[in-house]
Amino acid sequence: MKRIGVLTSGGDSPGMNAAIRAVVRKAIYHNVEVYGIYQGYAGLISGQIKKLEIGSVGDIIHRGGTMLYTARCKEFKTEEGRKQGMEQLEKLGIEGLVVIGGDGSYRGAQKLTELGFPCVGVPGTIDNDIPGTDFTIGFDTALNTVIDAIDKIRDTATSHERTYVIEVMGRHAGDLALWAGLAGGAETILIPEEDHDMNEVCAKLNRGHDRGKKHSIIVVAEGVGSGVEIGKKIQDATNFETRVSVLGHIQRGGSPTATDRVLASRLGAKAVELLLEGKGGRVVGIQQNQLVDHDIMEILDRKHTIDEKMYNLAQELSI
Ligand code: F6P
Predict the structure, then answer these.
(1) Catalytic hit among 127, 129, 140, 175
(2) 3.40.50.460, 3.40.50.20, 1.10.1520.10, 3.40.50.450: which CATH number matches 140-252?
(3) Residue from 100, 137, 171, 249 whose mutation best tests the ligand 1 pocket (most atoms within 8 A of CB)
(4) SS3 breakdown of the chain: % helix, strand, coil, rounded to 5?
(5) Strand-pair category, 33-37 with 49-52
(6) What's the pLDDT tens digit per position in 30-47?
(7) Across residues 90-95, what is the average pLDDT?
(8) Catalytic: 127?
(9) CA nearest ligand 1 atom 15, residue
């Protein structure tokens, strides 16, 4: 393989730039040319593709976002869109592709693999919801952003003796809420993977109040429902002064943590290694601090699960 491409797709995540840098530098180190595909699959279809040099990825390791831009592309879900994308790759003599993104991005890579084009997926999403890897690029940074917010909100929650509902990202996955809730000492964590009973949520708040607790923090993953509505229900049922904070897209930005930079560098380089070994239709990951790779279809067929033990621990510690 003498020429590969790299793209980022779906929701951006801090550390994607570090992964792009690793792909480019690792490939060039092995005398392989790298082409950057801009705006994800949309740019692949329209041919927004430029050769990247060593210097193209200088000064980005510490930056959030993605220098290649990103998009959620409906057109690539069609046969015609993929055909156009394949033509662009063939035109430039690109022989393999690294796709950095989440579940939707992996689906695009799987489709290209079916067409006989070698692709390797690198898990980049703040949701930490990709099977076959303990962590995804950006999760640690987003988690630290959420913790910073919770700590700040706790100060004012204490001063005013209020109940706070903090809504964090995660349409289908509760990892961010679970880890942030555990690390932030939340009283209750609501995630899409676990059923909850609002009566019990309120009863717990009342029990805490009776014990002399002055404030409470409830972390809700957006997939559970609107934090605003949950806050209203709590206020109505308990009469405790309740405020809601929806953290939103600040969770997706910011300089990646050292952990994310290192993870991104390792995973990006590993993806190139696989392509150089002639392996496509794979995804890379990290399990017990060892780099691993899996068949992309196997990963897409698996359902993301949360760490039940961690969920139970959070319950035990927040009695
Ligand atoms: O998948 C990452 C993610 O940040 C989810 O947690 C969130 O639900 C979604 O993207 C938001 O997407 P958008 O930025 O397109 O609104």
Answers:
(1) 127
(2) 3.40.50.460
(3) 171
(4) 50, 20, 35
(5) antiparallel
(6) 999 999 999 999 999 999
(7) 98
(8) yes
(9) 11
